[in-house]
Amino acid sequence: MDATVKPLPTIRQLPPNLINQIAAGEVIERPASVVKELLENSVDAGATRIEVSITGGGTEMIRISDNGCGMSADQLPLALASHATSKLPTDEALFHVRTLGFRGEALASIGSVSQLTIRSRTEGETAGNEIQVRGGVIDPPQPCGCPVGTVMEVRNLFFNTPVRHRFLKTAQTEKGHIVEAFTRIALANSHVHFVLNNNDKPLYDLPVTERWSDRIAAFFGGEIADSLIPINSDDAQIRVQGYVCDPSVSRGNSRMQYLFLNGRHIRDRSLQHALGEAYRGLLMVGRHPVSFLRMSMPPELIDVNVHPTKLEVRFTDGGRVYSRLLQTLRHHFLTTDMTQRVGPAPAAEEADLTPRPSSELGMPVRAEQAHRQSVIEWARTGNSPSDVFVSPAAGGPTAGAGAPASAPSTATRALPSFGSVPSFQPFPGGPTPSTLPDAADQTEPGRSSDSDHIAPWDGPQQPAADAAADGIDHPSVCHLGFQVHNRYLVTQDEKGMVVIDQHALHERVLYERVKTKVLESGQTLESQGLLVPEPVSMTPAERTAVLDHRDTLAQIGMEVEEFGGDTLVIRSYPAMLKNTPPADMLRTLMESVLGGGEKPEPIELLNHLLSTIACKAAVKAGDPLRPEEIQALLEQRDLYNDTHHCPHGRPTALFFSRDELDRMFGRLGPRARASK
To answer: What was the pLDDT predicted at 35?
Structure first.
């Protein structure tokens, strides 16, 4: 026989024990996988109390006992057989799965790589039965004494697969994975009493609760529990319930995003993306929201048979599910006061979905509501209002034509035109010097007293001569608030004090305006044609990115063309960025595009470009503002729902409640009462 000829391989049927060990490699990755599979079986068995005990990080012993329906003696061997299950009574049931488990592989896989003992008893039996498995070898069932339910005891995991055992981490690390698996099951089933013991010491004892927030607080503590925002939405097929956390509480990764679908913990990239989109502009870059959401929908709309560990699912209409989650969260954010509060926040109620009314303009609530309604009505119609806007100190809005002769003198505002975004003005539509009392005394060089708008922002303004003479930083004061350190605005309402970051708030206001114009109205930003087109030399990657997104750049008013070689020319530029060099701005935009790693969607890129423009055009920390500019900015804050954070996620304001201020100054408590 020729030695160079290789013998043909022979196909053989694998023995059942080896098949189960291979299956165990897919299903049983570590001790936490065992805990997950057995806990799901206990929940499916209808248990109302489940106790988990582990030793040595789960490698030495895992014991899970429940008070579920139990198994009879003739059912125990079948439970250990591969692909045997009670959860699919018919073949068609695979497409209507309503249980956590359905594959019939868990017990067979676990028994093939461990020493497994099962004790079980049904309701009608006087005694239980016990069956033992040693590395896949099944002993006959034997009678035993045990309560109604099932006890699963797994010892010496991976004792016959030393390679798998060597890849396990320390006992402490494996315990952490078990706690995470336990957390996911216990969070999804607050109607079940769960207990977890580690090395005979209790870790969790979670009684049945009707308030899901109590179960969340038991796992994650007061910081998370105090920042929960209730979510509730139902469109007859897709229901979303649960909680998301205030943007002030976030994490550096997505591990604190718990999403449950029909009681099953899942990981879905599209739903995680919807969650991130809902928080766009509310979180700093690199931060991830914290959420606990339960979704329910008909089982026929879901395919759960796409992953060995059942962690992933497939939707028949993924776009609808994505939109439902995104719209639900955005609606709740827009109807909730997201102002960041200093001090303890009130606890969230299970059914409390009503945003708390608050006044932040320093006027009575009724007067403020009328004031806001007038502004909103004007913003909706675009017509000049018949009422003049008066100082809150003067008692609210007063009819212009029908005002009594004894009405106090008021300051009117030339309100902004939302139909177009003019050449940049820090507070477009703010009160003009000519319409303010003593306007002649307030007019400064470079600011026309008879113009229709505040002059374009040309950098910090010099303080008044008398203020500069004594070297003291005098705050600019208007009847709505005042400026401190040329960077913060301070105002109040009947509930407390609000400190506002002028740059963050102005950035959000500008972003909302340009977003409304470009994304909702389909227009483009006003651009200024350059008298001499500006050439820009770029790397091949930058040049390609610019040309790929040329249409998107045109929507923000930047017209770019090829010039030859590695050079591009900028022919027009957003009018509101006249103080920023066009070449620098183009490079800044492209750095963000290339830094993402993946080609962004046009809508994502446009959102990023608009937020960058708003940031560059907004007033900066250190820019002194005149009283009328402060007033205009504070009033424009109430024209939009989403002004609690800048587009990059920084909070625009901090709220100090009156009680918290009293507590800080020692005005609350026995000592304060004794000093009165």
So the answer is: 95
